Structures are given as C-alpha cells and as structure tokens.
C-alpha cells in the first residue's frame, strides 16, 4: 500500500526544523476575538490532531496556516517561511497574490464539505491544479491523477462527476486532488463530519495510509479513535487557546484539565 | 405462545394476480370544452385577417427577396456582435462591481445606473450624434473626423452592445454570486490565483445560472436591433420599410419582417437549449432529454391517449 512515496514524491522530509510553527497567533473578525494566542509546533512526518468544541477556532487556525485567513497578531511559519508576509528588518510586507498562491501549492487542504469542482469529472478535478498551476502537461497530470485515484480505491470512477459519487467517494477524490500537487503538508478540516457513519471508515483508511507514508498532517477531527491510533500529538483547543497538548493516548485517557475532561466526557 | 406452534397453519392468502390493471381513466371534459373554445376564437381571428385588405399572395415572394435577406443578415450579425460585446463587457463590469477596490466598483455601479436607466433608442441617437461632442477622433496613432468613424454599423454596435453590457453584468453578477464560496476556497487552497479561479472554477459554474437569461437577452436583442433603423443601419425593419415605400405594401412588409424574426428567434431558442444542456454538466446525475427525445416520448404518450389500453 505504501507505494505513494516512491512514485509521487509524497512524504519527503524538509531539511531540519519544524514544518509548522505558531507563535502567539491571534485572529479577530471585527470585534470578535477568535484565536487568542496559539503556540505550537508540528514536526515533519507528524500526524498532529486538533480537537475541541464547536466554535473554539479550530477551522480558523487551520485556514490561517494556508493564509485563507490573515492572522491579526503573532507569527506563523511553514517550513521556516512566514505565511503571507515577508520580513525585512522589523517591518512586515504583505506578499503579492501570486506569492501567496505559490506558498499554498505546497499545502494541501481537505474540507468538511469536500468542495470538489462539480463541473469536472473525478479525473479532471485532480488534474486541474497540476495543469493550471504547475503548467504540467495533460498527459503527465492524467497519469498521476489515475494513479492517485487507484490509490484511494476509485480507479474505476475516473469519468464520474462529483454528483454521481457518494460522500465518502467524493472525500477520497478531494484527498487525491490535494495530493496531486505533491504537498509537504496536508490540512484536514473535519474530513469525515459530513459523512454517513458507514462511509467514515473508507476515508480514515486513506488518511491512515497517508500517515504511514510519512505525510505531515494536521487533522481537525472528532474521530477520537483515529487520533488515538494514528496521531503523534494532539491539542485540545477551547475558546481560542490551546488548553492541553501531548501524546493523543495521554491526553485522551488522562486529561489534566477540567475543560478537557468535560469535553471528552461528552464526546467519548 | 407455545401452543400456537402446533396449530394448523392458516391457508395462505391468495397472491394478487400479476395481471395489468384495467381501469377506466378519468375523463377530462374540461379539456374538450377549452379546446373547442380555442378553436372557435382562432377561426374568428383567422377570418378577420383573411377578410382584411392585406395582399397575402405577395408575402412569400418577398420572404426571399434580396433586400429582405440582406436585412435579415444585418439583423442577425449586429445582434450577435452586440451580444458578444455586451457579454464580454458585462463580465468585466460584473467583476469590477464585486471588486474590493472602491473606485472600480463605483465606476461599475454608475455604468449600470446610466445604461440601464436611459432608453436604448436615446443611446443609439446619442452615438449617432457623438460628433457634436467629439468632432474629431484622435487616438494618437489614428485620427479622423468622428462622422467618418461612426458608420451606421459602429453606431448600432456601440448603442446596442454597451446597453446590453449593463444588463449582462447584472446577470453575470447573479451567476457568480450563486457559486458556493467553498469553491473559491478549494481553488485558492490548490494554489490557483484569483483570475484562474474565476476562469476555471467560478465562471463555468456560474454559466448554469447565466445562460438561460442570456438566451432571453439574445432573443430580445434580435428584436431590439430593429431600433438601429433610426441610425440608418440596414437591418430588417429598415429594409422592409425601404421596400414598402416604393411598393406601397406596408403591412405586408411588416408580416415579412415578422416571419423572419420568428425564424431567427426559433432557431436561437433551439441553440439555447443545447447550450444550457452543455452547462448542466455535473449539476445533476443525468442530463435532461433533448427535444427530439422528448418529442418521441410525447408522441408515445399522445398515442396512448388516443388509444387507451383499457377497453381492449
Ligand atoms: N469569516 C468570519 N467572520 C466572522 N466570524 C467568523 C468567521 N469565521 C469564523 N468566525 C467565527 O469564529 C468562531 C470560530 O469558528 P471556527 O469555524 O474556527 O470554529 P471551529 O472550532 O472550527 O468549530 P466547528 O467544530 O463547529 O467547525 C466562530 O464563533 C465563528 O462564528
Ligand atoms: Mg470547523
């Protein structure tokens, strides 16, 4: 199963240092203060899980990592580079649209609601970014897209439009679409929350497989089983701050904070 | 409950016979009455028209008259070109209108406000008399008398096209806004720029919302282009009146022109149908039937209405 790393270059480790580093990250929307100082480090090849109650800012933090949201204060680095800004002396300069787009190429994102392009077939969805962004030839992109579809178990669904696929199949295509850009980091925002219970497993299997291949992954999830088995670290977020962090088994079985305990008692 | 076990099982219920149901269908007497009324009205109108002082016999020969054909051709191509101009400019104005830059969005707002708020005929006449404002056109590399530049064709194209752009921009804007925000995010997350996102992801999906009213706009344009007659453009109505001024067959010529408008709008309704089908890709699990397929199905239904399978 773990053939992906060889033929698609997935899982290659960057030279030293953490993959993601957040230093006192704040985010406000107008007057509402959503992230109130997040500090964390995600190492290469690590599966980093984020749990927490609804509205605690998990999605917002994830979206800051690929600059879908601008942070209001603090510093956020991916592979040692500031996200969305360039620092010269003590001044920060906003990156141009093209430079932001270039940063995002190396970060794959999988959404709760799949967000496949409905006017393209499964294969076209996966080919789109390599052809449009990397200027890859269609033949090369198609070959890789086919390989990725095989890999997520949908090799026979190449010509299907998203509306013709089940939720679990759509999410697997969405993962393949993100992988087609050969990202160094994958962000998952509750990838199984919109799925019927019997479809959750097929998506988690693909993610587990990806983790085995050494992909660096940040996973916002309510699947505690997945976090426990696959996760290398876990943070519990509440009200815009990291309340508790550690190894998933530690945090899930022996939470130190009252808020973590009461949250876990509700979801477990 | 244990004693029920050794009870003799009840005789099985006889299965429903797998025959076709033979029922008398509901009779729709109202339909027959309505149909008879419609036919009566049509006959009345028909006799009134046929008794009028209209020389119907000359209509067929003028339908293919060279002047009329050239008029129909002018109507067709000015409509297509004005629509194309309206569409391209409409997309630009729609994007400007939604831009975060306050200057561009205000300019777009005023454009729509002005061109939607004044009659097309007035706009055409303004372009016709533009030399009053700008007697000379000087583009640096090109300089000429405005009266030389503004041919009837250019006047008609600008008058109709710029007006259309105002309407199209509102249609395009509605289309763009109909596309889920998650699409933009997914596209950005893949590293696509705003422009690429618009062209590859947003507009193709917006088309499903844009195409039906655009087809409507185009059919409108085919007929609105008759106003270009006021700026000496040789479209259908101008050519028809040219003929009637010498042949004195005024009403007959309007009939001829109307038949051509009907032909053009019919052809484009069919084209529109297939374009809509094209952009419905992926929006539903299976494409709707083509008119031919539907016609065949309706014929079959009609057949079964004529010969109800009940009585036999
Ligand atoms: N664009 C925005 N404008 C204003 N408020 C926002 C915006 N996006 C998120 N918020 C607010 O930020 C808070 C955190 O939202 P976020 O989506 O990050 O929560 P979450 O932890 O992912 O919750 P869930 O588990 O429900 O997905 C919410 O109260 C939300 O209303
Ligand atoms: Mg969320």
Number of discrete helical segments of chain A: 10
Gap between N and C termini of chain A, in Å?
Answer: 31 Å
Average pLDDT taken over every residue of chain B: 87
Helices of chain B, by number, come to 12
**Principal-axes shape call of chain A:** globular
| Number of DSSP E strands of chain B | 2
Helical proportion of chain A, percent range? 25-40%
Give, in order, the helices and strands of chain A.
Answer: HEEEHEEEEHEHHHEHEHEEHH
Uncertain regions spanning at least 5 consecutive residues of chain B: 1-5, 306-312
Tell me the helix content of chain B: 55-70%
Number of DSSP strands of chain A? 12
Kindly estimate the percentage of residues of chain B that lie in beta strands according to DSSP: under 5%
Strand content range of chain A = 25-35%
CATH topology of chain B: MetI-like fold
| CATH C-level name of chain B | Mainly Alpha
Structural class of chain B: mainly alpha
How far is the N terminus from the C terminus of chain B? 52 Å
The largest pleated sheet of chain A is described as: 6 strands, mixed
The rough form of chain B would be described as flat
The largest beta-sheet of chain B arranges its strands as: 1-2
Enzyme class (chain A): translocase
EC number (chain A): 7.4.2.1
Family (chain A): Belongs to the ABC transporter superfamily.
Keywords (chain A): ATP-binding, Nucleotide-binding, Transport
Walk me through this protein's architecture:
The complex is a heterodimer of chains A (268) and B (312). Chain A has helices at residues 4-8, 58-65, 97-105, 122-132, 138-151, 167-179, 197-212, 224-230, 248-253, 258-267, and strands at 20-29, 32-42, 47-51, 73-78, 81-82, 85-88, 91-94, 107-110, 185-189, 216-220, 233-238, 241-246. Chain A is of the alpha/beta class and 268 residues long. Chain A has a domain at 117-183. In chain A, helix 4 (122-132) runs parallel beside helix 6 (167-179) and helix 5 crosses helix 6 (167-179). Chain A is globular, with a radius of gyration of 18 Å. With 312 residues, chain B is an all-alpha fold. Chain B has a single domain (59-280), classed as MetI-like fold. Helices cover 69% and strands 2% of the residues of chain B. Chain B has helices at 29-51, 59-63, 66-98, 102-117, 120-128, 146-149, 152-177, 181-189, 194-224, 236-247, 250-279, 291-306; strands at residues 136-138, 143-145. Chain B has a two-stranded antiparallel sheet with strand order 1-2. In chain B, helix 4 packs across helix 7 and helix 8 crosses helix 9. The longest helix of chain B is centred in the first third of the chain and has 33 residues, at 66-98. The interface between A and B is medium-sized, with 32 and 24 residues. The site of adenosine-5'-triphosphate has 11 residues of chain A, from strand 2 and helix 2.
